[in-house]
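Appendix C: a fully annotated inverse folding record. The material below is reproduced so that readers can follow the format used throughout the book. The structure is listed first as tokens, followed by the designed sequence.
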């Protein structure tokens, strides 16, 4: 049985009404770029959650990375505001979601993108003995990620040498020098990080190589002395009668 055109239009209008009722949107300051907000450390981000055509007393909820955010009662009805202040490095990548408490399918989400520079500056003095190993470490946590290179005496370090080993997990960049030699490894080193936003940052290291010190085997020596002392005491104890007679003869 075919439905009349007027009935079809009526049903379509009902479907459209159901789909679009309680639409949730998030407005932000600074303005979002599609589904993300770009900001920096120590800035403030304000989020406002709005329901289109709300029902009286309709309650909203905020989630940060899936965890419920505590709100005051008056800040959860029909319209809700959330302030992120100050923005920290931990907020980079954080996903904020606003939804209807009575219907979790009605929701909107926005993500923070936090730009921050690496904490690279100053210099550090290090000492190492000949033939030992030494590790140089730089904190390279930053966003966007950095490009890191190592230099010695201002020139790019030749990493083809088997004594140099580098690693970078996005948090710490390390240069390990194995089997240190004064004529080869003593001098000024630096880790140089290049950021597409913050430019070039660097930290320097001054390495001094000392002569190798022959380490005294303290543990075995103490053990040997204990054995010797106990042996002497045992010998004296076992010959105590003879020693006593000798003293008596000396007195007579």
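Designed amino acids, in order:
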């Amino acid at each position: 049985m075919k439905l009349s055109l007027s009935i079809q239009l009526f049903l379509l209008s009902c479907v459209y009404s159901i789909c679009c009722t309680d639409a949730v949107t998030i407005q932000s300051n600074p303005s979002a770029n599609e589904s993300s907000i770009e900001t920096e450390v120590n800035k403030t981000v304000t989020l406002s959650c709005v329901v289109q055509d709300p029902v009286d007393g309709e309650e909203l909820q905020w989630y940060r990375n899936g965890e419920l955010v505590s709100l005051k009662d008056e800040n959860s009805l029909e319209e809700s505001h959330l302030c992120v202040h100050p923005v920290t490095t931990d907020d980079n990548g954080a996903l904020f979601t606003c939804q209807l408490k009575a219907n979790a399918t009605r929701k909107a989400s926005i993500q923070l993108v936090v730009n921050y520079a690496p904490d690279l500056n100053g210099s550090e003095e290090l000492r190492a003995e000949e033939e030992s190993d030494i590790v140089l470490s730089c904190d390279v946590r930053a966003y966007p990620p950095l490009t890191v290179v190592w230099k010695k005496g201002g020139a790019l370090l030749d990493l083809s040498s088997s004594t140099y080993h580098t690693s970078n997990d996005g948090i710490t960049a390390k240069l390990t020098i194995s089997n240190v030699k004064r004529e080869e490894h003593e001098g000024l080193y630096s880790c140089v990080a290049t950021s597409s936003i913050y430019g070039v940052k660097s930290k320097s290291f001054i390495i001094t190589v000392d002569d190798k010190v022959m380490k005294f085997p303290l543990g075995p020596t103490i053990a040997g002395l204990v054995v010797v002392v106990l042996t002497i005491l045992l010998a004296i104890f076992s010959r105590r009668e003879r020693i006593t007679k000798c003293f008596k003869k000396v007195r007579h």
